[in-house]
Every structure is written in C-alpha cells, then in structure tokens.
Design goal:
286 residues; globular; disordered N terminus
C-alpha cells in the first residue's frame, strides 16, 4: 500500500481554506501524528473544497493561515492571556566575552488590544536593577522602590518593541490594524510573503513570512529617535521556534539598527496562565 505524504504547499492550501472555519484541525497542525492518535469523530465536518490552482492569495488568507499555525486566534487569546517570561538580554550579542548582559523577567496581562496590555519588565545588570512598567498606555519605571520617568530613548525603545512586534501581527484584528500584501519575493534562498501591518496610528510594520513554514522570519520598521533626526531602519529576526503550551514561540530574537546587530534576546523559560497580582503593574506611590 502506498503512503500519502503532504507537501508544504498542499498543507498551506488546506490551511488557507480551513484556518477560520476548521478549528478542529488545530492540534494536527501543531503536533506530529503518532501511532496512538485517536480516530476523528464520525460527525466531524469535512473541510471545504479548495481550488488547488489558486496562486494569488490575499493578505488576510496568508495572515490567518500563519496565525492558525501559531496556535489559532482563540487558543492564543486563551492561553496567552497572562504569563511570565524570563531570559537574557545581550548587547550586541550573547557570544561569550562579547556582551553587556542583563537577565530579565517579563510579566504581562493581555488586554482586548495591545494598547490595553499591562507589562512589567524587570532587568538585572551587575551594577543596576530596575523595572519598566506599561499600563493604561503609559510607561514609567521603578528603582529602589521609587518611581522615575524613563529617558526618552528608553521610552522610545520600549514602546517600539511593543508596537513593532510579533504580537502586532498575531493580534492585528484585535488591534484594529489593516493588512497590505506587498508581494512575494525570494531572499537568501528563501521564498517569502511580505505583508505590511498598519495600526490605528498609521504606523507600519513589514513582516517577512516563510512560504514553506508560514513562520514570521523577521520584521522591519522605521523609527525616529528624536524630533528632527533622520529615521533609523530596524529589523528583528525570529529564530529557534519552539512550542510553549501548544503555541509557537521564537526563543531567540536579534535586533538590528541600520543593518548592525545591537541586541540579542534569549528566552530561558516561559509559562502562560499564571495569575498575576494587579499591584505588580501599579506605581508604589499611587
């Protein structure tokens, strides 16, 4: 008996048709089949037929198929409602002997949209410990139990990394953002879909998505450090993808400024679904 193997292209075509209407296949998209896998229920609806000759996919079809593979929109909203992430931040790289290194812990509670998220980023360096807290659309810091106003460059960097992020793509509908398909390209031997996500403030982030895996490989955006200065081009690369509680997470991220690497982040541990005290996100002077 011949075995049937699905190529990445066939899988992609199936996902485009089923990403929204067939959530029952989410587990199959996330996990390899095993010998002990249970048989599908008899009453399970069959996926709708897809035109396999279709070549021009829309921006929404590509985005929704990618989101499906990251864990489905419903699963991401439920599992990543809150959590704790810890790891290392290195400048410019985590190579031994070549970095200024800090450990970090990031605690968050997800809002209905990203501007309503609550985030606390605690960083520890050899000579300094401090926290940056984002809530109600504002950013402030805590050091030695007292609040402080972060410098403008620190504020710009924090907000840019939140605004121009992987979550910005995965939550584009919740954020009220619009999609634009730039096209399809081949770079460094990789076939890519290129999508722009434009948020409600008209700020744009460009995403480069693998045609083969539908993983976001990197993103690009322009950011002005201060008024009157020329905009700098940033790119963030996502690597070492792994599953965390059934959702896809890049465990290594590299940030570049005008093509030069300025930061590397490595996730050491991440746990979703942890109840967090609201006091973590409030000013001690409130």
């Amino acid at each position: 008996m011949r075995r049937l193997f699905l190529t990445p292209t066939v899988v992609f075509i199936l996902l485009i048709g089923c990403a929204v209407n067939c959530p029952q296949i989410a587990v199959l998209a996330q996990q390899p089949a095993t010998k002990n896998a249970s048989k599908p229920e008899k009453n399970t609806p069959k996926p709708e037929k897809i035109d396999k000759n279709q070549k021009n996919f829309t921006a929404e079809q590509i985005a929704e198929s990618a989101i499906f593979l990251y864990g489905t929109r419903e699963m991401l909203a439920k599992i990543r409602r809150n959590g704790v992430e810890s790891g290392r931040i290195c400048k410019p790289t985590c190579d031994v002997g070549k970095a200024e290194e800090a450990t970090y812990q990031r605690r968050f509670v997800r809002g209905d949209s990203m501007d309503k998220d609550k985030i606390r980023l605690d960083q520890k360096m050899p000579t300094l410990e401090y926290s940056l807290i984002f809530g109600s659309g504002q950013l402030w810091g805590i050091i030695n139990g007292a609040t402080f106003t972060p410098r403008q460059d620190a504020t710009t960097t924090f907000l840019a990394q939140h605004r121009h992020s992987l979550d910005n793509f995965l939550r584009y509908k919740e954020n009220g953002s619009t999609l634009s398909l730039v096209g399809k390209d081949k770079q460094k031997g990789l076939d890519l879909y290129i999508l722009d996500v434009i948020d409600k403030d008209k700020q744009s982030t460009r995403y480069y998505i693998s045609v083969k895996t539908l993983h976001v490989l990197w993103l690009e955006y322009d950011e002005r450090a201060a008024a009157g200065l020329p905009a700098l081009k940033y790119s963030r690369k996502f690597m070492d993808y792994r599953y965390a509680q059934g959702t896809l997470v890049p465990y290594r991220t590299i940030l570049l400024e005008d093509g030069k690497q300025i930061q590397e982040t490595r996730v050491l541990n991440i746990t979703y679904g942890i109840k967090l005290d609201d006091a973590l996100f409030k000013s001690p002077e409130a």
